[in-house]
Amino acid sequence: MGGTRAVALLALGSFAMGTDAYAMAGLLPDIGADLQVSVSLAGQSVTAFTLCYALAAPLFSAVLARWGTRTVLVTALVVFVVANAGTALAGSYAGLLGTRALAGAGAGLFTPAAATAAVALVPPERRGRALGLVLGGMSAGTVLGVPLGLLVAADSGWRTALWLITGLGVVALAGVGTALPPVCGAAAPSLRARFGALTRPRVAVVVAVTFTQTVASLGLYTYLEPVLHRVADVGSAVPYLWVWGIGGVCGSLLAGTLVDRTGRPALLAVALLGTLGAALALLPWTGTVPGLVLLPLIVWGAVGWAFVVPQQHRLLAREGEGGAAAVGLNSSATYLGGAVGSALGGLALAHGLDARWLPLPAAGVALAGVLFHLTAVRALARREAGAGAGHRDIGIDRRDAGTERRDTGADRRDAGAEPRDAATDRRDAATDRRDAATDRRDAATDRRDAATEPRDAATDHRDKDGTGAAGVTAAEALERNTP
Questions:
Q1: How far apart are CA 369 and CA 60, in angstroms?
Q2: Using CA atoms, how far apart are residues 215 and 221, in angstroms rounded to an integer?
Q3: pLDDT tens for residues 5-28?
Q4: Does 110 have pLDDT greater than 80?
Q5: Cα separation, 96 vs 48, whole angstroms
Q6: Rounded CA gap, 379 and 294, in Å?
Q7: At 132, phi and psi to the nearest 5?
Q8: What does the buried/exposed string (b/e) look like for 402-421 if buried means 16 or more CB atoms within 10 Å of the residue's CB?
């Protein structure tokens, strides 16, 4: 199976996860009425889902760290299906919380594994699009699955909507279990690797900013129906949830393309988070003009879903083999932020805050995330620049130390050469003395030769006068000596 078709299967699983996570926001009034609890208390079932996603999923991932990615994905979908069936059968508030927590654990296993598998199944230049497609499947669940679930709930009750979600999980399980190819290099990270990623400053900043974004976005989404009722006096929230989901699909798909084309995921993340804060801040004031509330809703959905793509891309691009652990940690931060946001929103409503003004603190959290991101990135840049200068100084010191060692060696060689030179000088002096003695002997020889020459000359002269035998031939001597 090709990489694109395999990523589409992962997107199908994300579709089921998105439908489950976001349909609950529209079902809270019906669930509260059936189980005889308030809407704010029923909203804590969303907190249970997201909190267990964030905290319990890493524990399960640690247990399954040595398993293959496809096995992790199949296990996650099995847990998801069983949990949603349990939610549909829940007869008490405690049972609802327990099954929602289990469903959150299944989603927490599936989503980060699906993201890392999607990246492993495509070439590097298509990673942004693959991530966008997987996350687009989750946001598509809000566009198609959530309205469909709410329509089914309006006609047949909220439990039927949960059975619909269970059926979606079964379809995703069949597709992933039978047709997904083996995935190399994307095994579930261990618990130590996942939380150890927080020791790296760049990862910690990305995860912290993701947390602030989801506190604002997902926390407020949990109570979108009462907010819309107070802001625009809407009767049914289904059309508005649909608009929000359409924005999410568009944002997820476009964000991947923007990341691939610009290569600036950090700048894109800041822009998206700032836009989210502005959209949420404007939401309470849009009720005076009919239909105007749809504008901040579609922007909110688009930038909220798009934000995840550059964040995960940054972690996968910088962390290499540790990317899976970093993505898993970021995914946990996503739902931990949602849990904190929904819990705080429920507390605010329970203590009398008008739901109309709930978007304002959410906007404040988003804008605080922008400020934190800019400040932290600037501080990291200065720190890395200082560390780079320190490394250069260390390199210079090492080169100087090497030069000093070479100079010391040269001095030692020179010191060793001096005795040899002195011995050579002494040998040369001795040679000079011997040469001088030889010269004196030669001079004495020359003087003796000079003294001998007059005597030899005198001898030669006598021989020429006949007084010597040296000048007479042998015949003449014989003749003279003959009588």
A1: 29
A2: 10
A3: 778 888 888 888 888 887 887 788
A4: yes
A5: 9
A6: 38
A7: -60, -35
A8: eeeeeeeeeeeeeeeeeeee
pTM of the predicted structure, to 2 decimals: 0.66
Q: Taking a C-beta distance cutoff of 8 angstroms, is the pair 274, 370 a contact?
A: yes
The three-state DSSP-derived secondary structure of the chain is CCHHHHHHHHHHHHHHHHHHHHHHHHHHHHHHHHHCCCHHHHCHHHHHHHHHHHHHHHHHHHHCCCCCHHHHHHHHHHHHHHHHHHHHHCCCHHHHHHHHHHHHHHHHHHHHHHHHHHHHCCCHHHHHHHHHHHHHHHHHHHHHHHHHHHHHHHHHCHHHHHHHHHHHHHHHHHHHHHHCCCCCCCCCCCHHHHHHHHHCHHHHHHHHHHHHHHHHHHHHHCCHHHHHHHHHCCCCCHHHHHHHHHHHHHHHHHHHHHHHHHCCHHHHHHHHHHHHHHHHHHHHHCCCCCCCCHHHHHHHHHHHHHCHHHHHHHHHHHHHHHHHHHHHHHHHHHHHHHHHHHHHHHHHHHCCCCHHHCHHHHHHHHHHHHHHHHHHHHHHHHHHHHHHHHHHHHHHHHHHHHHHHHHHHHHHHHHHHHHHHHHHHHHHHHHHHHHHHHHHHHHHHHHHHHHHHHHHHHHHHHHHHCCCHHHCCHHHHHHHHCC
Check if the beta carbon of residue 277 is closer than 8 Å to that of residue 216.
yes
Per the CB < 8 A criterion, the answer to whether 233 and 225 are in contact is no
Neighbours of 24 (CB within 10 A): 26
**For 281-304, what is the mean pLDDT?**
91
Note the pLDDT of residue 239. Answer: 82
Structure tokens at 215: 């506190």
Q: Which has the higher per-residue pLDDT, 42 or 454?
A: 42
Looking at residue 191, its pLDDT comes to: 65
Question: Average per-residue pLDDT in the chain?
Answer: 79
Q: Average of pLDDT values for 453-474?
A: 50
Task: Among 54-58, 103-107, 352-356, name the one with the lowest average pLDDT.
Answer: 54-58
Q: What is the C-alpha separation between 207 and 336, in angstroms, rounded?
A: 11
- The residue with tokens 């989603």 is 107
- Residue with structure tokens 């359409």? 246
Give the residue with greater pLDDT, 315 vs 127. Answer: 315
Which residue type does 305 have?
A: W
313-344 tens-digit pLDDT: 888 776 555 666 777 778 778 878 888 998 89
